[in-house]
Specification:
This protein is mainly alpha-helical. It has seven helices and no strands. α1 crosses α6, α4 runs antiparallel to α5 and α5 crosses α6. The longest helix is centred in the last third of the chain and has 34 residues. The radius of gyration is 19 Å and the shape is flat. The relative contact order is 0.13.
């Protein structure tokens, strides 16, 4: 009896990148509300499903994970859309989902670089992880703002998902426009962690991949 072989990885990291970029833009421009949060969660879930299907596992394992993931994402999306799940819980689950995508595609991304070098798909996967880090921090910021007494931002009484995503990516890229600043210690700690994570990731992972991509193009 033959042993089931792992499925051939398709490396659809470009699709993951497009989905995650769509989530970022959507959260910034969409009005705050249960419907917007539900759609954003569904899009991040779609990125996770694509990552699962990209992984090099046995077909039966891929199907099982895809079915479980689809059912879970659908249920949470519907419950979020109708307001059953509290805002803070949705944010926490979204942050975990955003971190689950890099964890799922990380092994395949490393394998792709070893087998084929710094291809366009590899660069897209690395950039997708970078965007997901920003989304995860945005969800963490929203969670802290929802549960912590007082205002998260100094000098600002209101905040929305759009503000959290916008602030997160200005911190991640160390742009620092100064229109939003954390008012308390937890927010400042998150900002420091995000700045360090973003810069270390850009200098190491993205820098190395882009450098190898340029070398391969010249060869």
């Amino acid at each position: 009896m033959s042993t089931p072989q792992p499925a051939v990885a398709q490396y659809r990291y470009g699709m993951v990148f497009v989905l995650v970029l769509t989530v970022v833009v959507f959260l910034i421009v969409a009005p705050d509300g249960d419907g917007s949060r539900a759609l954003a969660f569904a899009l991040v879930g779609a990125a996770l499903l694509v990552s699962i299907c990209t992984s090099r596992e046995r077909t039966v394992v891929l199907r099982r994970r895809a079915v479980i993931g689809t059912v879970t994402i659908t249920i949470v999306t519907l419950l979020t859309a109708v307001g059953v799940i509290p805002h803070s819980i949705t944010l926490a689950v979204t942050a975990l989902m955003a971190l689950a995508v890099p964890a799922t595609l990380g092994g395949g991304l490393l394998r792709l670089v070893r087998e084929r070098g710094a291809t366009a798909q590899a660069v897209a996967g690395a950039l997708a992880i970078y965007l997901l880090v920003g989304l995860a921090f945005a969800s963490a910021i929203g969670f802290v703002a929802a549960v912590e007494p007082g205002n998260f931002f100094a000098g600002s009484a209101g905040h929305s998902a759009s503000d959290h995503v916008y602030y997160s990516f200005t911190v991640l890229t160390t742009t620092g426009f100064g229109d939003f600043t954390a008012a308390h210690g937890v927010g400042r700690a998150l900002a420091v962690l995000e700045m360090l994570t973003g810069q270390i990731y850009l200098v190491t992972v993205i820098g190395i991949l882009v450098g190898r991509r340029v070398e391969q193009a010249r060869a």
